[in-house]
Every structure is written in C-alpha cells, then in structure tokens.
Write a structure and sequence with these properties.
With 469 residues, the protein is an alpha+beta fold. Among the domains are: 112 residues, 2-Layer Sandwich (Uridine Diphospho-n-acetylenolpyruvylglucosamine Reductase, domain 3); 197 residues, FAD-linked oxidases, C-terminal domain (Vanillyl-alcohol Oxidase, Chain A, domain 3), CATH 3.40.462. Helix content is 31%, strand content 22%. The strands form four sheets. A nine-stranded antiparallel β-sheet has the order 14-15-11-13-12-17-18-16-19. The longest helix is centred in the first third of the chain and has 15 residues. It is globular.
C-alpha cells in the first residue's frame, strides 16, 4: 500500500503542477464486436472472441464424447473443442457444436520409475501442481496463468520461460486422440508416430485429445527474484542472464525507461517471501498513470521511472508450481511472436520505438521470454531456440491499430506467432514458416476428411490450395 500511495502521490503532484491539463479517458477507444447474445453464447476471457453455438456440451467421460460424435443430430455439424477461453485467436468460435472437456480432469495414472503422469486434458493448470507433488512429480516448467486448461495449452504450444526449457508440448510422451469417426487412437513416438507429432500441437483440428502422458521430474523448490532496472541494463545482460538462470524473463514498462527482470533458480532454502507488488494492482496503477500523464510522455517517463527506481528487489522461495503461476484479473488482448535468438533485441527496440512514438495510450508491459527448441510439427519453436515478445492492450480498448503497427516488425525478423494470440497470418504464410506444414495438413485431412473439426478460421488455413501450394 505504501508503494501504491507513493506512485499516486507522484501522479497527483504532476497533475497539480499542470492544472490546465485534464485527465484523459481511453475507455472510449474500445471497438468491442457487437454480437448477438443468447442462452448458448460463448466468449473468451478477454471478450474479443464470441460465438452462439447451437449446442454447448460437456461430456463426463470418453464414452459420452464418443456418443456426441456418433449422434446423428451432429453428423453434419462442425464441432470445436474449447478449453478455458484464454486464447485470443479465433480457434474456438463456431455456430454449431462446442464441446468442453472441463469434466475430464485429474491424474489418471502415473509411472514412478519413469517419472511420468497421464493427465486428463480438462485439468486446469492451477489444479495440477499439488496433485503432482503428492505423487512425487512436478512439471519441468509452467506458463504463468493458472486458469488455462491443459488441453488448450498443449493445442497451442503455450510456454513458460527458460533458455533450456521447452514449451509444455515438448514434454508430451503419449496422448489419446478421439477422431471424427469415433476411433480412439493411442499415440506416441512408436505407435501412430506421425499422428503423435501432429497432435502434440494440433489446434483442436485433428480431434479431441482426451489425455496426455507428460515427462516430469521430481518436485523442486524455486527462488524467484524480481529486480527493477533501466532498460539498457536489462538488454545488455539479458542473453547472459538467460543462460545463467533456470528461468529468466523481463518486462519493459512503456514510457518509463525501466523494466523488471524475473529469475527462478532451484534452491534448498526454506520457503519465504518479501513484500511484492500485486500484478493486478500494478496494471491498474499503470493505467491510472497513463490516463493522467499520456499528454506528456516526458513527464510520464520522469514520474514512472523515478517511482520504479524506488522499488526494492522481491524474493519468493516456494514449490515450483507456487512460484510459476498466478491469477490474472486485469483482462487484455495480446499479440505474441516467437523470434530467432539472434533477432530479438533489434525487433524489441523497433517495437518500443513504435509504441512510444505512436501509441501514448499503451500502458501494459511488454513481456520477453526465452524458450528452447522442440520437434512438434506445428510448435512455433520447431527446431529453433526462440525469444518470445508479447504486447498487450487493455480489453476495453481497441487493440487493432497497435497490433497492425507491430506485427510487420515481428514478421520482418522471422517471427512465428503464438497460436493462441492474435495475428493476421494466412495458411500460405504458415506454410512458409513451418517446414512440416504440409505433413501436418495431410495427417489432418486423413483423420478428418469432411472437416468436422474446422471452424471458419481453421478452414481458411487448411485448404487444398494451401496444402499443395
């Protein structure tokens, strides 16, 4: 509370010294889509995607899922899987049948010797850490939002950060796929290997992945350290620090010249925690500073930069799953691209230049993470160590102009977009970016020749014209 009071005091003092300047409200910039609302309406977390499906179903077992697929009433309908709605891209919307696996949850089986667990894909990330710890296992790495479903994360190659750590899809050792014809296929590197490689990041376009077997490790404790630094100091040392720490990421605060780094390292130290800024409160503070100071980028930089230099280092020692994930209550829309390691700094500098030169209304931090290469066909990290750069807009505000301005930068530096984040790429674009795009498309066509799992967005990506060039 003292930290927040100090920032409010600084902003108030700046306003008092420039009495003629009113506060600026940016809520009017919203461009929320007007959609018909009905009893079956579905919306994603940010509200940027919506649909009015004819049916919304949640089977309680794999057999009930098979009944849905064989039901004559749905034979001509498009069917889309849905997770917890934390994706921003139009992977889910359909006017036909929407099926949630939210009732298929929990650890189904485990192998203590190999340290593997078979887990139902309706399980939320926030429900996974403690049950795994109870069987003496832990995920190698985790994303940072605790309400994502396991199936949704794997379908889109959702990731955490760590130069030597893959996205969660990279740790899949086996999976169960239910196809459009109602076949139940067990897939791994030896059994149905091509389907396995495709379904590890399948976009929900191959069928329903009802459970996965993940390669895990023994539980571990992490020491999380958050430090506020000038941007140039962060950039000068980022690649080195990413190599030195198990997990490393940083956030740049637009119009401040400052950012903060977050590192995780395995430790035997006892659990402890210093005073920390709540991420949700912090976002609201940055929004308030934007509303009152966006008329003067120079003053905004002076106030925010000065405030952030007063913030002390934060340290938290806890079990890995307690340190990785958190609740996100301030909603936003997001664009994230994964760039080759050699290109990320040049791309980031250009993105910052565009934001601070053209978009004074932006207040959400820019997020930068490091991810190791894997071999899943549609993984954005396929055969390429990458650095992910994400930009955000508050959910009530129009994200389109900002994303249209920064996306060409990401593309020019060889970026591949996160499957769950907003982008404008076509099937032809993806075919260029993914060496195994045609192989994936052929597997998809063989499994679902009638396109039951293709909504309008996916149908545009996976056309015969795109596949054959």
């Amino acid at each position: 509370m003292q930290r927040r009071h100090f920032l409010n005091l600084l902003v108030g003092s700046a306003i008092a010294s420039h009495v003629g300047w009113p506060a600026i409200s940016h809520a009017q910039t919203t461009s929320a889509k007007q959609t018909t609302t009905g009893p079956m309406t579905w919306r994603n977390w940010s509200g940027s995607q919506s649909a009015n499906p004819s049916h919304r179903l949640a089977p309680r077992s794999q057999n009930e899922l098979l009944d849905i697929l064989s039901d004559r009433a749905h034979q001509e309908a498009k069917i889309r899987p849905v997770g917890s709605g934390h994706s921003f891209s139009p992977l889910v919307p359909t006017n036909d049948v929407l099926v949630s696996l939210a009732r298929l949850t929990g650890i189904l089986d485990h192998d203590d010797h190999l340290c593997r667990a078979r887990i139902a894909t309706g399980t939320l990330l926030g429900q996974l850490g403690q049950p795994l710890e109870a069987i003496n296992q832990a995920l190698f790495n985790m994303p940072d939002i605790d309400q994502q479903s396991l199936g949704g994360m794997l379908a889109t190659a959702t990731h955490g950060t760590g130069a030597e750590l893959m996205s969660l899809s990279g740790y899949i050792e086996g999976l169960t796929l239910v196809t459009a014809q109602g076949d139940v296929l067990e897939c791994n590197r030896n059994q149905n290997p091509e389907i396995f490689q495709a379904a590890r990041v399948g976009l929900g376009s191959l069928g329903f992945v009802t459970d996965v077997t993940l390669q895990n490790r023994r539980p571990y404790r992490l020491k999380k350290t958050t430090e506020w630094l000038p941007l140039e100091d962060i950039l000068e040392n980022a690649d080195t620090r990413a190599s030195e720490h198990r997990n490393y990421e940083f956030f740049y605060i637009p119009f401040s010249g400052m950012g903060f780094t977050s590192t995780h390292d395995i430790t035997d130290e006892p659990e402890s925690e210093t005073e920390a800024i709540d991420q949700n409160d912090g976002a609201r503070d940055l929004q308030q500073a934007r509303d009152y100071l966006s008329w003067s980028p120079r003053l905004r930089r002076l106030i925010l930069g000065g405030y952030m230099r007063t913030l002390s280092t934060e340290v938290k020692v806890a079990s890995s799953w307690q340190n990785y994930t958190s609740a996100r209550n301030v909603r936003f829309n997001e664009m994230e691209y994964h760039l080759p390691r050699e290109n990320w700094q040049a791309a980031l500098r250009e993105v910052i230049g565009v934001i601070e030169g053209q978009f004074p209304e932006v207040f959400f931090p820019i997020e930068v993470r490091f991810v190791k290469a894997d071999d899943a066909w549609l993984s954005p990290f396929y055969q390429r160590d990458s650095v992910s750069i994400a930009v955000h807009r508050f959910f009530e505000e129009d994200h389109t102009p900002l994303f249209e301005a920064v996306e060409p930068i990401f593309r020019r530096y060889g970026g591949r977009p996160h499957w769950g984040k907003l982008n404008t790429l076509t099937g032809t674009d993806f075919q260029t970016l993914y060496p195994q795009w045609q192989a994936f498309s052929e597997v998809r066509e063989a499994l679902d020749p009638n396109g039951r799992f293709l909504n309008p967005y996916l149908a545009r990506l996976f056309t015969k014209k795109t596949i054959t060039g």
